[in-house]
């Protein structure tokens, strides 16, 4: 066997040698050797080239990411979750209002709150291998690189969801290899820090989705679901999910809305619908849906689901939206500053620091997804807005030319504007407000941001309240309504009441306040000016009032500015027992995770004592309840009864009118005026209602609306409760002192409220003295010993000179006007004296019409009355305050003389004659009569009368006002018959003229 094998091998060797010995074989062997060597060399070159290319590629990649620092986990997660979320606004009771204005609307959600079909649609479309890869898919990257290098028309993309998250949150959308390299590196790193679920949730919250039905740019699947289909992301069905999942590839091409939220139609809508079909096909390919589900989704009418008619909160409620944004920004400023260790007071004092935090807070409010909960009652706010729009009595809308930014002259409307605030007294929460007539015409919020002169609404806060606290007055204490002249920065200034001729003399403080008389307020304020009553306004929250604003004219509102919010809040302090509660429109603010970062806490600041607050409130009830109260019209228009108190106000030239009313629960302030303060509401009197009527009507309309919508907020059955320390005491009405017997006998006792610990009537009254008076030019003066008795009235009630000086201090004034005939104290005479001259009065001229004799006024200024003579005998004496006429009893020649306060008579007037009837039997001779004075310039001596002539009937005192029925009226003295033995007829006395009407008209006080 071995031999056979050996022979076979030898034979094979011989055969091989035979073949290899040929020439052609040697050539083949050389060729294959060369090929083999070349193959080995090529392999070495390819391997080396590959290694070099890989090294070069790696080096190039490293160079692209060389400047990208190694980010920590905390840094990367912070950037990923730093996406903006739109802050949301809420009315009271968690009623949704809307979102703040922002460039991008986004509402965050969680993965659990997104429907499964929506997640499947995203995975099938954007990242099929999301749960398998580690941040990148190399095959997809190479495909994308080849397409880019080859400039292929087909660009399939190669970014995973992780890469897209990196691009949107950490990098930019820049198209470059450097950005792509960084994206790849960071995507692989991010996968080590976040789970797949966390990456998916973040992606769904950050990805842009075009615009919604309100025209806003949107991001996040929750915002897209609500903005396009009006459903939350958790309720998206398959076709809806497919449509939304397809949008991010080309957001503004595939969104169903054009600019402004206008729905696309026809060809403009086709790209989005075709993209939805593509997404559905990808879901079918990847096995997420069945063929039946695919066909059903294709047949679905997705267009019918598109949302229409959505509006932004700014469009529906612009005043509320902008006001809440402004207030929330200011609150967040303090929150951010406090987080950084900056004290809020430092923030207010450092302008640069303030501006820095203002910018930071503005960004945060718009982008941090805060939930801002307000105090505004939605139903009440909407109802009040409708009520102010329905009111037709605002007045004339003006037109004004202006130059726009292009230098063109245009015309704009200037309507009468309105501002109103309704707030809760014990918390300061603003329940509703009216910011203006129309936000499109004027965006200024006239309730919170417009500062105007507050007119006579300042009187209770700056004058009467402090006067009660300082013990100057009780509720009914006498104050002086008499004109005076004062020095005003070197100029002579004579203030007046709203009716310039009105001077009511001594009057109760509550009446002066109810009628809003200016002169008593000025006099009261001057008495306590050194005690700095201006501090009461500062403590009550008037932000634009300073200590040096306390000039005398500020008692009428001069130089005192405030917003409707500030004025209403100050009156709410009176309702709240004198405790000032800072107003708020924001109850709390939550961050995007639901954590409360701010919550309003009402803090009380004592301004008035409870006793002063109650007494002042009781006085201010008269503004609403009495006929002469300046808010009585508003009270009469209410459809319900409630315990209201308050005040009206009118500024100089009626540029503003105010009405603030409060009950134990709420306060409402209303202002009317033009935006340009140079225009008066009192223009076009023949076309418009009086301004005070307008503000009364509008206040009543808004309060009735409040009662209709929120009756519990008003609490109409509640009344103000009198605190301990408030007492009712009797006093002498003209002095305020405890009444003595003379005061009681004269019927001058009054009673009203006082603060027991501060002021009660204690000292016995010493004001009254006996005295008589006469009148000159309608004013009362003390009678002289030589004054003819027939021109003297009174006789028993006078006041001392010390009383006059005390009451008129510090400005002085005409003492003769302390007790005018229309006054409730008209039976009292002041001790004013008249400085008479030494000349006889000038004569008068006489005329006759039928049997009525009339004469002119004497040119002299000291005339107290006139004497009428017939045939030389005196038949009547007529006071100068009566009409210059006399009804002649029979035929004869009549003359008239003027009599001055000293008793001097003028020369006789011309004679007028009444002829005797004919024929008549001759009358018996008459006894000798008193001769008329000769008509010459010599002054006649005062006549000595053996018996007193009849005095004219004294003026009947004005009846007491209805609120004090207990005060007895003075009985007029009985007339004594004048002795006329020669005349059987009794001459008629002319009627006393009525006193000038000094009642306030519908419109009220005029501010200085």
A few lines on this structure:
It is built from 29 helices and 37 strands. With 1008 residues, it is α+β, with helices and mostly antiparallel strands. It starts with a helix and ends in a 94-residue tail after the last strand.
Q: What value does the Rg take, in angstroms? A: 49 Å
Mean pLDDT level: 84
Low confidence ranges: 928-1004
**Describe the biggest sheet?**
5 strands, mixed
Structural class designation: alpha+beta
Distance between the termini: 147 Å
Q: Counting H and I runs of at least 4 residues, what is the number of helices?
A: 29
Sheet-strand content, in percent, reads 15-25%
Number of strands: 37
Helix proportion of residues, in percent?
Answer: 25-40%
Instruction: Describe the strand arrangement of the main beta sheet, using strand numbers.
Output: 2-1-6-18-19
Outline: elongated
What can you tell me about this protein's structure?
The protein is an alpha+beta fold and 1008 residues long. It is built from 29 helices and 37 strands. The chain has a 5-stranded mixed beta sheet, with helices on one face. A 5-stranded antiparallel beta sheet has the order 10-9-23-22-21, with helices on both faces. A hairpin with a 2-residue loop joins β31 and β32 (852-855). α19 (458-469) packs across α21. The longest helix is centred in the first third of the chain and has 42 residues, at 23-64. The protein is elongated. Residues 928-1004 have low confidence and may be disordered.
Fold blueprint:
Elements: H1 2-20, H2 23-64, H3 73-80, E1 88-90, E2 96-99, E3 105-106, H4 116-126, H5 138-149, H6 161-169, H7 177-190, H8 196-206, E4 208-211, E5 217-219, H9 221-229, H10 238-246, H11 251-254, H12 270-285, H13 291-299, H14 313-316, H15 318-339, H16 344-349, H17 351-367, E6 371-374, H18 378-390, E7 398-403, E8 409-414, E9 417-424, E10 430-434, E11 452-453, H19 458-469, E12 478-481, E13 486-488, E14 491-493, E15 505-508, H20 509-514, H21 518-528, H22 534-539, E16 561-562, H23 564-575, E17 579-581, E18 586-590, E19 596-599, E20 604-606, H24 610-625, H25 632-637, E21 645-650, E22 656-662, E23 666-673, H26 691-709, H27 711-714, E24 726-732, H28 741-745, E25 749-755, E26 768-769, E27 772-776, E28 779-782, E29 793-794, E30 798-799, H29 801-808, E31 846-849, E32 852-855, E33 863-870, E34 873-879, E35 885-887, E36 892-900, E37 912-914
Parallel strand pairs: 1-6, 3-5
Antiparallel strand pairs: 1-2, 4-5, 6-18, 7-8, 9-10, 9-23, 11-16, 12-15, 13-14, 17-20, 18-19, 21-22, 22-23, 24-25, 26-30, 27-28, 27-29, 31-32, 32-35, 33-34, 33-36, 36-37
